Amino acid sequence: MHRSKEQPLDRSITSSPQPASPSPSGSTGSSDFLQLNVADALPGGRADWLARELRRAIADGRLPVGSRLPATRTLAADLRVSRGVVTEAYQRLTEDGQLAGRGRGGTIVVAAPVTVATPGTSTTATRPTTASTPSTPPYPSAPIPPHPFTAPPGPEIFDELRAAPARIDLSPGVPDLAAFPRAAWLRAERAVLADLPAAGMGYGDPRGTPALRQAVAHWLARNRGIRVDPDEVLIVAGTSQALGLIAQVLHRDGDPAIAVEDPGSLGVRQHLQYWQVATPPIPVDDGGLCVDALRASGARAVLLTPAHQFPTGVVLGGHRRRDLMHWASVGGLIVEDDYDAEHRYDRAPVPALRSLLPDQVCYVGSVSKLLAPALRVGWLLAPGRYRKALADAKRFADLGNSALPQLVLARLMESGELERRLRLLRRRHRRRRDAMIAAIGAHLPGATVHGAAAGLHLTITFDQAGTAPSDTDLAAAALARGVKLHPLSWHRQRPGRPGLVLGYAARTPGAITEGVALLAEALTNWT
């Protein structure tokens, strides 16, 4: 299996045995490491066997957190298998979050499963720990309730869900964090530091560094058809801050409401409501946001995800786009969250609304799904009448984003590294999406799949609403079996069909298939 240069596994080896040639008939390989014997593997299933043995050793403590694994070349020679078998097994556990490549430090165990008991059952889940303090969680957290689905979701619901142990995390909105381009980021950071004058370490423009604002303008022109001057770009700490700034400015201007899609993102709704902005629900159907309902609501601003609606995955149709732009042209404001626009597989790109009606659209984007949410970098393009107020709100919020990550990101954008990464991720995500669709077809034949043409998640709904459990009960039953996901009802303000929202970007095809099978088991046992 091909391994990207960003995640070396065995640069720490001091000697380099030659890759083993195929073993002669009747001869099998074994290793002192974990007393592995390749004769125990099924024909054609050696990578599966090795990954399973490594997981078992981590779970039972033979490989505690902090342990270093043999170099892939060394273990392959011991077992008389191709190096690709070992690399594939290591890669699977890396993507599961149990191993990590440390460059010259080799491949290290970084997380081990823990058993968490809940009433009537027990689950095994992978919880990250550190080698120096294996019994101490890496971050403080509030006590975890039996599961996050016992009550309507509150402000801390996503923190609670992240903290809930699960072996297979299918939460939507989670990118493949194991694939972060560490080596490319380090190269760009070294280059930035080598060129950065001392003055660059001081306070800067709260709107963002000129280099990143220019890089974002170029990126949007190339990838989203948006022509914008760098001076019009406001760099923010992700989409969430952009929405908070917009809510503050509109509220001060006397607009106490921003209409939102229904179903639509619970997290987005919570951010707006925190700033005392009402969020009247506007129904979404197969054509996207229902503009007639928006018009009837009386709202003067609307937030939507037209390129890939969350969570249904529908695209705002041409007729609806024209109707929405007509609504905006007579005094309405569109807040366009360009959610998942780059992650498309089976359809042509959808033009951004901002490219068609710049004077009536606040456009929001980020690199949270393309790189990592931990970077906290996004951008906001606003009509001229709002620019100064938004820049002031950003200034008094935090004086601007950290400059160094901005400069590194600008270098990656301008060098073409980000486009190369996007092409790689599209291929990987397509394979994982296909695995999830196949697993749903095999294990949940009564479910309807929505939003498969783009994005990082699928939504499934169930027709038998009278006999099926509530989606929160089903999510709780899945979590008890070690699978984490979102109930669709979290993202609704009005009643609707039960459903689940399943992310696939951060999991391997094998883990996805297993997770869907466990979900089907939960549903079968319920009914």
Please describe the biggest sheet, giving its number of strands, its sense, and whether it closes into a barrel: 8 strands, mixed
Mean pLDDT: 86
Question: What's the helix count?
Answer: 16
Tell the overall outline.
globular
Instruction: Return the structural class.
Output: alpha/beta
Kindly report the spatial arrangement of strands forming the biggest sheet.
Answer: 8-15-14-13-12-9-10-11
CA radius of gyration is 25 Å
Count of β-strands: 20
Instruction: Note poorly predicted spans.
Output: 1-27, 115-146
The amount of beta strand, in percent, is: 15-25%
- N→C terminal distance: 41 Å
State the helical fraction: 25-40%
Task: Provide an overview of this structure.
By secondary structure, the chain is of the alpha/beta class. The two termini are 41 Å apart. It is 38% helix and 15% strand. Helix 8 links the parallel strand 9 and strand 10. The protein is built from 16 helices and 20 strands.
What is the secondary structure topology, with strand pairs?
Layout: E1 30-31, E2 36-37, H1 46-59, H2 72-79, H3 83-95, E3 99-101, E4 107-109, E5 111-118, E6 121-128, H4 157-163, E7 168-169, H5 182-195, H6 210-224, E8 233-236, H7 238-252, E9 259-262, H8 266-274, E10 281-285, E11 288-289, H9 291-297, E12 301-304, H10 318-329, E13 333-337, H11 353-356, E14 361-366, E15 378-381, H12 384-398, H13 403-415, H14 417-443, E16 447-450, E17 457-462, H15 471-480, E18 483-484, E19 486-487, E20 499-503, H16 509-526
Parallel strand pairs: 7-18, 9-10, 9-12, 12-13, 13-14
Antiparallel strand pairs: 1-2, 3-4, 5-6, 8-15, 10-11, 14-15, 16-17, 17-20, 19-20
Helix pairs in contact: 1-3, 2-3, 5-13, 6-13, 7-8, 7-12, 14-16, 15-16
